[in-house]
Amino acid sequence: MSTCARKNISSEDMKDHESVNKNNGSIQLKNPHIERMDQDYLYHLALGTATHDLVEMFKDVKFVCMGGAAKRMEDFAHYVMNEIDYKLPVGTTLLDLTQKSQRFSMYKVGPVLSVNHGIGVPSMGTLLHEVVKLMYHAKVVDPVFIRIGTSGGIGVEAGTVVITEDGVDAMLNPYYQLPILGKMVQRPAKLDKKLTQELKAMVKQEDSFKVVCGKTMHADDFYEGQGRLDGAFCDYTEKDKIDYLRRLQKAGVVNIEMEASAFAAFTYHAGIRAAIVCVTFLDRLKGDQVTTPKTVLEEWQKRPQIIVARYIKKSLQNKDFKGF
Ligand code: R2B
Ligand code: URA
After folding, report:
1. 0.90 exceeded by pTM
2. Helices marked H in 120-272 — which ranges?
3. 267 lines ligand 2 (CB under 6 A)
4. Minimum CA distance residue for ligand 1 atom 7
5. Mean per-residue pLDDT for 204-231?
6. CA-based nearest residue to 316, from 115, 111, 145, 143
7. First-residue to last-residue Cα distance in the chain
8. How far, in Å, from the CA of 267 to the mean position of ligand 1?
9. What does the alpha-carbon distance between residue 65 and residue 140 come to, in Å, rounded to a whole number?
10. Residue 261 near residue 125, CB atoms below 8 Å
11. For residue 155, how far is the Cα from the chain centroid?
12. What is the pLDDT of residues 28-67, one digit of tens each?
């Protein structure tokens, strides 16, 4: 069941969408140095332009799906393979393509790349730089990036799926800021409205889980940064915590995780259409510890995957898709 209202996409949102699609959808790197380099080695992926035929390996990628945990993204690769009825070449198995890096895990199932980004922005940012360059070197056309994650809900039942409409930081800013060369740089945390609508449309009345839409806040820390009372330190009261969560809720935030606004800002800056779908593991208004049994959490983690796999399947059935 979904309680997401269908929103009209404004002409400004469409302009964003069009700007992403200029240059026939091919990725334009906003970095003149890359072209001048003899080779580009993507260190955390253990893949490079001099060591691998990246065009041959990745040119058919259309959907880049990412989430924190390596196991979740391996499971997603198997799940999506089954859902889209993709057959691996005879005699091959699904391999971790970044095995040698010992940092991230990445699986390719035809047009779908499933990769983990670790916890938090420093890890995800590193991965995003290299995956975006990978898509560029591989001459991939108009890929969509979707984060499939976990989160803490605010006022929603544990196990609910949240489709993010906007990313905000822990100060409720609609941008992500990072220091570059000693100066703070702000980048708008914008997701693709059309893609978000398309994902919302994948929710079925008969789904056994709830889906809600709203703002997702990213925090740079799981404990104090998310107002938890169970970290190694806590210099605030339970009332302070609840007041903060209520303030977030009033501003339209429905869940908290550790990457949303940076993911939105990075992909928007790169000119890549992107969306975020997360499940909530608890309602933060009711507690802080994640004590739900692992088997139940594993079942909940599949929920965003179901929505995203439906979207991928539907997109592949579109007459414009050339097939695999
Ligand atoms: C959700 O869960 C992780 C922390 O447990 C983090 O990566 C996130 O965004
Ligand atoms: N991930 C987070 O970042 N926060 C939560 O509360 C649960 C999962």
Report:
1. yes
2. 120-137, 193-200, 238-250, 260-270
3. no
4. 119
5. 98
6. 111
7. 32
8. 19
9. 15
10. no
11. 22
12. 899 999 999 999 999 999 999 999 999 999 999 999 999 9
Under the banding of pLDDT at 50, 70 and 90, the label for residue 16 is low
Ligand 1 geometric centre to CA of 229 (Å):
17
Number of other CB atoms surrounding residue 243 within 10 Å? 13
Q: Which ligand is nearest to the CA of 119?
A: 1
Q: Burial, 48: exposed, middle or buried (Cβ in 10 Å; 0-12, 13-18, 19+)? A: middle
- CA–CA dist 3, 214 (Å, integer): 10
What per-residue confidence (pLDDT) applies to 3?
79
Chain-centre distance for alpha carbon 217 = 13
* CA nearest to 68, candidates 312, 297, 311: 297
For residue 68, how far is its CA from the centre of ligand 1 (angstroms)?
A: 6
Q: Which atom of ligand 1 is nearest to the CA of 150?
A: 1
Residue 5 CA neighbour count, 13 Å, CB half:
4
Rounded Cα–Cα distance for residues 238 and 37 (Å): 54
Residue 76 Cα to ligand 1 midpoint, Å, equals 17
Ligand number nearest CA of 228 is: 2
Kindly report, residue by residue over 127-153, the tens digit of the pLDDT: 999 999 999 999 999 999 999 999 999
pLDDT tens sequence across 255-308: 999 999 999 999 999 999 999 999 999 999 999 999 999 999 999 999 999 999
Spatial CB neighbours of 31, under 8 Å, sequence gap ≥ 6: none
Give 149's strand partners.
278
Between 145 and 21, the more confident residue is 145
3-class SS letters over 163-190: EEEEEECCCCCCEEEEEECCEEEEEECC
Q: Is 152 close to ligand 2, i.e. is its CB under 6 Å away?
A: yes
Q: Which of 126, 101, 100, 130 is nearest to 113 (CA)?
A: 130
* Residue 203: other Cβ atoms inside 10 A: 20
Amino acid type, 206: E
